[in-house]
Amino acid sequence: MHKTPFNFPGRLGTGRFLWLAVLFAILSPGLGFFVFAAGRIAGTKAESDLRDRALAARPLAADTLKGDVEKQRLIPRVLARDGAVQEMLRSPGTGGEAALDEKLRAIARDAASSVIYVINSEGTTVAASNAGKPTSFVGRDYRFRHYFVEAMASGMATQYALGTISKRPGLFLSSRIDGPEGPLGVVVVKVELDRVESSWRESGLVVFTSDERGVVLSTSVPQWRFGALSPLSKKEAKIARDLLQLPGAAFEPVPLSHRGGNLVTASTADKAAGFVTVSQDLGKVIPGWRLSLLIPADAEISAAMMTARATALLALVLVAFAVSVIVRRAGRSDNGRTRLRA
Question: Could you say which of 207, 221, 264, 290 is the most buried, measured as most Cβ atoms within 10 Å of its Cβ?
Answer without folding.
Answer: 207
